[in-house]
Amino acid sequence: MKVLSANWVVPVEGPPIRDGAVAIEDGTIVAVGPAAQLGAGERYRDAVILPGFVNAHSHLEYAVYAGFGDGLPFSDWIGLHVQRKRQIDLKDAEAIARFGALECLRSGITTVGDCSFSGAAATGCADLGLRATIYLEVFGETPDVLSDRFDPMLERISDTLSDTIRVGVSPHAPYTCSLALYDACAALGMPTATHLAESEAETNFLQTGSGAWEAFADMLVEPPGTTGVRALAEEGVLGPNLLAAHCVQVDEEEIALLAEHDVAVAHCPRSNALLGCGIAPLTALRAAGIRVCIATDSPASTPSFDMFDEMRAAISGARARERRPDALTAADALELATLGGARALGLANELGSLLPGKSADLTVLSLAETSFIPWEDPVTAAVLGGSPQHVVATLVSGETRYEKGGKTWLELIDAAHSARGRLLSHANPTS
What we know:
The structure is a single chain. By secondary structure, the protein is α/β, with parallel strands linked by helices. It has two domains: 2-51 and 362-396, Urease, subunit C, domain 1 (Roll); 53-344, TIM Barrel, CATH 3.20.20. It is built from 16 helices and 15 strands. Strands 3-2-1-4-13-14-15 form a seven-stranded mixed β-sheet. A four-stranded parallel β-sheet has the order 5-6-7-8. Helix 3 crosses helix 4 (120-128) and helix 3 (90-106) crosses helix 16. 56% of the residues are buried.
């Protein structure tokens, strides 16, 4: 049995434990409590032990896309993104995904729900030991794309699937996937993720077919004449198996539809802000009982897998939108970034909090170099004072997958940077 202890243990489901410890056996948490009872084991000073973050909406294959198209309108940004993505091969995509998995682990993320364009994210997670649901992306008008695109990707990544890496499907968005394709994806019975109600440009196109989408017009489908949420509801494809990323442009009726059908929502406040899409109605989504979580999206828009920054952005956005300092507390944000993500992925019985019987997915965070010592509240300190630079160790199923000062990963990082160089050399960012 392995025991980790620190100044504080924050179970999320339960109050923080001063001078706490977590006991681990065979990758599972067997006890959480005072170190005086469980033993000090491996002791971390000026530190807090948290559940590993569950990042339910990511794109690991875009880990080196930071800054691409910054400041462009949403539709132009997507067009540039599509253009650059076409310039690299699978080997490059896998190199980037490995780097993305490493960056997640460095940020204390132990689980991702990743929308994967090529399937390379499965390889990256398997190689780095990051827990994942890999949603293989599909696009198009007809269900034939499942046999033409989804099935070959699934076959290619089949060797990477395991107890910690499972597969799902991602009909990309209502403007790139027909309702018939959404139906076909739902019929697979797999975990499903989609981008939904992200921008005004999306809503306008879906309702009227208008908008400046010429940069990727070859990917668009016939608009349904209504909003994405309403179209999917009318088609009967909303349900508890669906995770919807963003949901910025939703009204009261659409929020009620998401709640009625138990659709989970991944809130990505930094991405939505930087792309000029707006601030999602997080308070209303939570009040409706929707399984909401905080997620980072990808460095193509965010531009990092820093869950600490994401939590702070969620707090700032919610308080600014509602004009109330209690609209989202630090404890709320931490829950959304851990147990909330697990709920959104349908994995709340297995991870997202520090309870006996759950997987030993942990983040050890030092606050020694912050202004939060001496301690007042370990949750506020972790949320407002935390950063990837302060993550000491990240464990998945009790195994240390990242340790500060440990393995340098120079070859992996170099391969990802080389791939970014090819992206830069093959595309004109002003086109």
